[in-house]
Amino acid sequence: MSFNFGNSEAAIRTLKLSKCYQLYRHPRDRLKQFLWPHRWWGPRQYYRELWALRDIDLTVNHGEVVGIVGQNGSGKSTLLQLVCGTLTPTHGEVQINGRVAALLELGAGFNPEFTGRENVFMSAAILGLSQSEIAERVEDIIDFSGVRDFIDQPVKTYSSGMYVRLAFSVAINVDPDILVIDEALSVGDGAFALKSFSRIMQMRDAGKTILFCSHSLFQVESLCTRAIWINQGQIVLNGESAQVVTAYQAFLDKSAANSAPGTPITPHSDAPAVDKKYVLGNAHLDKVRLQAEGTNTSHAMIVSGESSIMIWISFVSDPALPCPTVAMTLQTKEGRIITSAATWEDEFAIQRTSAGSGQVYLKLDHLPLLKGEYLISAYLLCERGLHIYDSAEGVATLEVKQAGRLQGYFSIPHQWENHTITTHNDQH
Description:
Order of helices and strands: EEHEEEEHEEHHHEHEHEEHEEEEEEEEE
Number of helices: 8
Strand content: 25-35%
CATH architecture of the largest domain: 3-Layer(aba) Sandwich
């Protein structure tokens, strides 16, 4: 059962929340279960049970930003749908204090025969706004969506991008107390993606309660104060986001090591080939170059502890935007990030021209990488280092050779010393 409750410091509370699905092998089994659920010797069951969630006890206080992580099929989306009321629990309760807006399957409730304006009124009413409140906000919703020229046309004539933008605009402009996000931190592309992301950040900074489900552990750790790891329908860990992300990443690494080898990341043969002119309201990478021992290359062979490399990253951006930030990662061929560097972490201020272009380089001296093959990736992010404008994953490779037999990824600075043991004879 799902309901609103009175004054409480909790925005969301679940009590022994469970959801079970009945899986039938054949359609006729569903009919037999309906017609003959019992026999004289007891109940009959023509299905098998799949418990998506089991006994979830969770409390989210007002103003908290809580991330949810877990593998596909772990129960994350089921939990969010139960919180939003689009699913009913098999057992347990969901208690909600405040208006909920969900960024799940955007536009799923739109009537394709209705116009965009009619769908705005219908969706906002479902989210709990009165007709007068909708009338006050409808123009802002339309302006934010950017589909004003088509707002009085049936949404079945919309492109998929227009459809999603209008649905997002409705959800984000009803002034919810609780925002539920499932892999939809930003929608659309270009300027609208940044605008949608910025609005969510404004809501976070304004103290709204946010439940955020994502496979991006970087975003979970960056945005959330707390995180919850769900596996096979149960909470494995609930705590500070960095702690949960670290534990979950270790679990993923162990699972990958124990399973059959997956598809490795395929490096790009070239740096991003893009037009050097910026896109209004957006930013993108222009070139990413690797230089090893003074030579430009996309595949460098280097010697552990001796060689140095330079990574050149240039970008173009709308000069009206705050100056972007840049990040670099080193990964194994299987995709595991082993180290990274970012301008915002190092408090490095990028110099940008009045036209919005910029170029930085990152120098890595005497790389302590041990033998193996590694991938270099580059990222262009917003000024906060959260929203990713553009990426070049596996843009270059490093093949590292070494003289010795050390194992691992890095050779860390160390020093051996003898400990002299003083004997009784030495004292005389």
